[in-house]
Amino acid sequence: MQNYAEFIDQSVDFPQDGFRVKEDELYFHDISMMELVETYGTPLRFTYLPAISEQIQKAKRLFREAMRKHNFQGSYTYCYCTKSSHFSYVLKEALKNDIHLETSSAFDIPLIEALEKKGWVKKDVLIICNGFKTTQYKQNVVDLIHDGFTNVIPVLDNKEEFYFYDDELDDPQKIGIRVAVEEQPDYHLYTSRLGIRGDDIISFYTDKIANYPNFKVTLLHFFTQSGIRDTPYFWSELEKVVNLYCRFRKVNPDLDTLDIGGGLPYRNSLFFEYDYQYMIDEIIGRIKAICDEYEVPHPNIITEFGSYTVAESQGVLFRVIGRKQQNDREKWLMLNGSLMTNLPDIWALGQKYVLLPVNNWDAGYERVVLGGITCDSQDYYSDDAHINMVFLPKTRKVQYIGFFHTGAYQESLSGFGGIHHCLIPTPRHVLIHRNEEGQLEYDIFNEEQTSKQVLKILGYT
């Protein structure tokens, strides 16, 4: 019978970027996963910080090359969408790469102020303020501008939002407008709840905003829930918005920026295939062609990449603590942690991740179901993204497994340091970076949550 290593080699193209096997053990970005679990235990969350910078630099390089190829006259700006992960270690690493930021809620604004106090950003950093804005969110945006941040662009989600800024801001101010795009054909709603109808935007500008000379609409934004993918839906929405941009530019010479929302995908499977170079090249080419047809200047391009920025930097490691044969077809491997609480996207959205064994690659393999230790029937993982089932080494030895590319949204969805299902504690989290000599260094971001901390939250101490 084949061993697990041979099975993977025949099933997918392996080793892959970031993953290799050495002496029967898995390495992630040349980090020994066995050494990690032997040093810090399991369950364990870890973040390899250099992967964040690698993703940013790849996107910036591809946009730069596409613009040069097409003789595109606009500039490119990479914004990080903070909602994907607000943690300071993520922002600190991302901001090393000359990027800017996009906010989504009122509580993002104090975060921006904290970054400036730490010296990680300056007050001329570009801040794109997106989303439907509560009164507090709008007030926080205004306060940020009054505090001396000179490059804040509130993006209008509705017409009423504009009048709040008119009441609060006296100095010249740039603003943007979000276009309400059509949803995907298989979605149960027709139009996004966010943004202003495309048919209303130009008339809203000419009838209202143009009469307020201290406001300049410089940015048009759209967002596709599906992300940037090679589908008729994405290309249709892109071309509709670019056509709108060109018509809008004819009546509003201040308009100079197109904000492409909806992120680049990240690798969530060993079968993941996505031609980043083709997609970015095609986006720039289509925008240029439409603008040239209308004889309007090429826009500056902004993207807001969140999951793409952080997802591939993180992993979660577990130990198999039990094996159960429940019927003729279902063999369970019980893990020493909860999938629902540590990786809530699995439970809530059916999200798939790169799943690999940490050790025992020379053993045979078998089909299994992974079970978490909560009492909930949904705390399991039974199918990988590419083959709709899970195969892992068949062994009685100590077995560790890892879910990889899990860095977006997990802590935000499950909560950090709070109360979780069945009182499963927040796991230990290790940050991994490289020093100036390229050597790996490890820092514990937080220890595993203790029973005393849980009881205090519950009001018992």
What does this structure look like?
The protein is α/β, with parallel strands linked by helices and 461 residues long. It contains 15 helices and 22 strands. The chain has helices spanning 4-11, 33-40, 50-69, 88-94, 108-118, 135-146, 159-168, 198-207, 232-251, 276-294, 307-310, 339-342, 344-349, 410-414, 451-458; strands at 19-22, 25-28, 31-32, 44-48, 76-81, 100-103, 127-129, 152-156, 173-180, 196-197, 215-223, 257-261, 300-305, 314-325, 331-335, 354-357, 364-371, 380-381, 390-394, 400-404, 428-434, 440-446. Strands 4, 14, 15, 16, 17, 18, 19, 20, 21 and 22 form a ten-stranded mixed beta sheet that branches. The chain has an eight-stranded parallel barrel with strand order 5-6-7-8-9-11-12-13, surrounded by five helices. The termini are far apart.
Q: Helix and strand layout, with pairings?
A:
Blueprint: H1 4-11, E1 19-22, E2 25-28, E3 31-32, H2 33-40, E4 44-48, H3 50-69, E5 76-81, H4 88-94, E6 100-103, H5 108-118, E7 127-129, H6 135-146, E8 152-156, H7 159-168, E9 173-180, E10 196-197, H8 198-207, E11 215-223, H9 232-251, E12 257-261, H10 276-294, E13 300-305, H11 307-310, E14 314-325, E15 331-335, H12 339-342, H13 344-349, E16 354-357, E17 364-371, E18 380-381, E19 390-394, E20 400-404, H14 410-414, E21 428-434, E22 440-446, H15 451-458
Helix pairs in contact: 3-10, 8-9, 9-10
